[in-house]
Write a structure and sequence with these properties.
By secondary structure, the chain is of the alpha+beta class. It is built from 2 helices and 5 strands. Strands 1-2-3-4-5 form a 5-stranded antiparallel sheet. Strand 4 and strand 5 form a beta hairpin.
Length: about 110
């Protein structure tokens, strides 16, 4: 089972992600994430990370495409799977789980 919960009512604003044998708590604004796994006996470890702005990565992606014909962006199939997992979690949280599949998702 996969679980994705946004905690935005506490002022801390973090995302809690759980999957079998793993759990992450991500505070994107602070650039911090903590992770625990069954392999580590559920001991927590913290790591720093940065999410670059789109404007910071577009140039590199375009240069790679022009120079090599490829880039590090996910394929459409990979991106679709990731987006569908998040949308499924949103639909479940909104009580829309099991609803007929939509042709469009008007999210900007």
């Amino acid at each position: 089972m996969f679980s994705f919960v946004l905690h935005d009512d506490s002022g801390a604003h973090y995302v809690d992600i759980s999957a079998p044998g793993r759990r992450w708590m991500v505070r994107e604004g602070a650039g911090k994430a903590v992770v625990t796994t069954a392999e580590t006996g559920w001991a927590w470890s913290e790591t720093d990370f940065a999410v670059p702005y789109q404007s910071a990565i577009t140039g590199d992606a375009a240069t790679a495409l022009l120079d090599t014909g490829g880039c590090d962006l996910p394929t459409l199939a990979e991106s679709s799977l990731l987006h569908l997992a998040v949308l499924d979690a949103y639909f479940e949280a909104l009580g829309l789980a099991g609803a007929a599949p939509a042709e469009k998702c008007p999210v900007t």
